[in-house]
Amino acid sequence: MATTVFHPASERGHANHGWLNAHHSFSFAGWYDPSRIHYGALRVLNDDIVAGGKGFGTHPHDNMEIITIVLDGVLEHKDSMGHTQTISPGEVQVMSAGSGVFHSEYNHDAKKPVNLLQTWIFPNERNVTPRYDQKMFEDAGRDNRLQALVAPLNRLEDGALGIHQDAWIYRASLAAGEQVTHTLHGTGNGVYVFVINGVVSAEGQTLNRRDALGIADVETVTLTASQDADFLVFELPMNF
Fold first, then answer.
1. Averaged over 92-100, what is the pLDDT?
2. Which of 145, 171, 195, 234 is the most exposed place for a label (fewest CB within 10 A)?
3. Which residues contact 159 (CB under 8 A, 6 or more apart)?
């Protein structure tokens, strides 16, 4: 029988710093909830809005797989590996922090905010050589189906970007009345569904905008849209 945990949008952590308006699905920075440290290997899911002309100064990371998905606006990334690139809506960036990396993220548009989702996934190998990758994923590739954004480096599929963990991230855009079914890759994995926009249901739970649902002890998960919906599906090892 499925084991579920519901994370309504209204119960996320929230910090408005003026230049940054951030919502946290899991304990982060000044917000701590002992029941929300991580879900399986998923450690961070931040929903950030960066004001025009503002950004994150240079700061370090290590031993974490960091995935950034821009929903609106354009974000510039610079890192100690020598990359300077912009990330636009539809693009996904992965960065294996590994043995250590410094980076900064900035919104150069003085007027338009940037809305991004940043996720951190615990790696299955520590102190790897830092690496960076980025790719545009076309909207049509997720119309009424799951589009693979991220997959394990040794099990890449459908043009997904690779990370150092047996984890997958999919995005789907379902029209009202449509559904998709995801078959998990192995026992011991769970699924975390995060709704960007719209309304979907899974395992008897209705999810609205920015709601999330963790699902474990299943072999498949079916998601049904009652309104047009855009959402992410994470498949993650629950014990690592």
1. 96
2. 145
3. 135, 148
Q: Quickly list H helices, the chain.
A: none
Tell me, rounded to whole angstroms, the distance of Cα 98 from its chain centroid.
Answer: 19
Q: What single-letter amino acid sits at 114?
A: V
222 torsion bin: left (phi>0), alpha (psi -120 to 50), beta (else): beta
Please list, in sequence order, all residues whose beta carbon lies within 8 angstroms of the beta carbon of residue 96, skipping any fewer than 6 positions away.
65, 66, 123, 128, 129, 130, 131, 132, 163, 164
Q: Please tell me the CATH code under which domain 3-237 is placed.
A: 2.60.120.10
| Mean pLDDT of all residues in 59-88 | 93
Distances (CA, A) of 157 to 107, 145, 149, 153, 218: 32, 15, 9, 9, 22
Q: Would you kindly state where each structural domain of the chain is located, as residue ranges?
A: 3-237
Question: pLDDT per residue over 16-25, tens digit each?
Answer: 999 999 999 9
Give the predicted TM-score (pTM) of the model. Answer: 0.97
pLDDT exceeds cutoff 90 at 158: no
Query: Token digits for 103?
Result: 């980076």
